[in-house]
Structures are given as C-alpha cells and as structure tokens.
Amino acid sequence: MTHVFCVANQKGGVGKTTTAVNLAAGLAKVGKRVLLIDLDPQGNATMGSGVDKRTLERSVYEVLIGSATIPEAAVQAAQLAELGYGYSVLGANRDLAGAEVELVDQQRRERRLRDAIAQVADRYDFILMDSPPSLNLLTLNGLCAAHGVIVPMQCEYFALEGLADLAETIRQVHAQLNRNLRLIGLLRVMFDPRITLQQQVSAQLKAHYGDKVFDTVIPRNVRLAEAPSYGMPGVAFDQLAKGSQAYVAFARELVRRGLRA
Ligand code: ADP
Ligand code: MG
Q1: What is the pLDDT of residues 68-117, one digit of tens each?
Q2: Average model confidence (pLDDT) for the chain?
Q3: Is the distance from CB of 112 to CB of 66 less than 8 angstroms?
Q4: Is this prediction's pTM over 0.85?
Q5: CB–CB of 191/226 below 8 Å?
Q6: Ligand 1 atom closest to Cα of 226?
Q7: Which residue of 15, 21, 132, 138 has the fewest CB atoms within a 10 Å radius of its CB?
Q8: Ligand 1 in reach of 71 Cβ (< 6 A)
Q9: What is the pLDDT of residue 259?
C-alpha cells in the first residue's frame, strides 16, 4: 500500500520544505520508492532536490490543470540517485501560482491531485507533498489527496494557537472531502534544548497532543540550512550532521507509525 503524506503548516519558515526533502531522501535511502510533490510556487522542495525549477518542462501545475499526468511530469532527482538517495520529483515553479485562479470554476477542483495520484499510487511506497504557507486551494489539494498530515513546528510562543487553526482545517477536510485523512503527528524542528521556552512549549505540546507528538526531535543544525544551496537534502549532503541523523531517525519512526495505521 502507498502511504500519501502531506507536510503542512500554514506558517512560513517552520521547516516544511526541509522536512519534506529530508524525509523523501531518508525513505529513499532505506529502499522505499518515493515521489515528492512540490505544492509551493516558490519551488523550494524542487530546487532542494537538485531539480532546476526554471527549466522544468512540466510541473505539478500541468497535472492540476489536467494537461499532463504524473508520469509525464515527474522527473528523477539525478544527483541524489547517484548518492543512493534517489526519488522522483513532481516539481513546482511560479506557474503554480496561476493554478488557483484557473481552477476556481472547475468541478472537483480540490480533488485534482487526488485523482492524478490514484493513477500512479502503486508505483510508489511513499508519496510526500510539500505545501505552501497558507491554507489555500493548493494545500487543500494536498490534504484531499493525503492519508496523513505531518506538521513540523517550532516550539515557540504562538505555536499552539497556530496548531488549533490547522487542526480545525484537517477536521473539516476529513468531514467534507477526505475520510481517510488523519493527523499522523507533530514534529518538533529547529529545536534548541538550551532555550527554556522551547522546553516549556515542547512539554505543553506533549500534554495536549500526547502520542501525536513524534518522539524524534529535529535539532537546529546549520548543515540542514546549508544543504539546499547544493541542491541536496541534509541527509545526503552531510550524513553525519546531527540534523541529518535526526531526519533519518524520523523516517524510521514514520515507517513504524505509518505501517501501524
Ligand atoms: P518552510 O518550508 O516551512 O517555509 P523551510 O524548511 O524552508 O520552512 O525552513 C525555513 C528556514 O529554516 C530555511 O532557511 C531552512 O534551511 C532553515 N531550517 C529548517 N530546518 C532547520 C533546522 N533544523 N536547523 C537549522 N535550520 C533549519
Ligand atoms: Mg517551504
């Protein structure tokens, strides 16, 4: 069975893209067949996988408007494949910003991606989606297509409030559009244990969300931030970095949890 996960958080800069690309590479490294779908017009997950968003012939935009299938539009992350971290990328660039407007009058506009994924699901063990920093039609397409949501978050003061909005969106999508959708878990990222506030928010998170909080914690680690400029996820760029090891541990934890579902 294919596991389809959407990495989402309506806040920007919270580690969605970093989580999506590192998870894709981490799962690929343990032999899983992975497709990463970039749903953010900024195309950071595309570039961070070593795929140039400016020269994409086809992208997720064509898939959403129905002029290409996923096999026609997805490309291999070639540099990563050479290193043993290869996965497929359905890329994004600024074209995608137009999709929202173009889809507005279309029927089943929230289900475009789900319909496209249904045709290729058995080709992959995991399909991961990176989403933009808002709860727009692109994110909605991701949530409609997914079995589960992974929420990266920083343990900061307003984090819990933001989570309530996201939880409500997930609840509505579950009720109205996608009965399969559930919250897989909350991933604490950019964590610095020396900061008391982060420890406090982390404890609150555990108290509120219990075992929906992943055991793995991703530390703040500069190697993860440097990796995208080399067109690589951290786990491929510097295997030994603390942040990379944490993402590999997270990939393992997810496989354990995902298979339990
Ligand atoms: P989002 O996709 O939610 O906007 P990103 O994954 O792009 O967030 O992360 C925002 C910034 O933080 C990026 O510059 C990224 O390289 C950096 N970053 C993400 N995770 C970490 C981490 N664990 N340690 C250090 N820097 C990180
Ligand atoms: Mg991003």
Answers
A1: 999 999 999 999 999 999 999 999 999 999 998 899 888 889 999 999 99
A2: 95
A3: yes
A4: yes
A5: no
A6: 16
A7: 15
A8: no
A9: 61
Closest of 124, 191, 188 to residue 153, by C-alpha: 188
Question: Interior CA angle at 113 toward 229 and 57, to 5°?
Answer: 50
d(CA 133, CA 131): 7
Give the burial string for 82-111 (b: 16+ CB within 10 Å, else e). ebebbbbbbbbbebbbebbeebeeeeebbb
Q: Which residues of 22-50 are buried (b: 16+ CB within 10 A; e: fewer)?
A: bbbbbbbbeebbbbbbbbbbbbbbbbbbb
Residue 111: predicted pLDDT: 95
Q: Which of 18, 23, 138, 224, when mutated, tests ligand 1's pocket best, judged by the most ligand atoms within 8 Å of its CB?
A: 18
| Mean pLDDT, range 206-230, rounded to an integer | 97
Domains of the chain: 3-260 (3.40.50.300)
pLDDT: which is higher, 122 or 42: 42
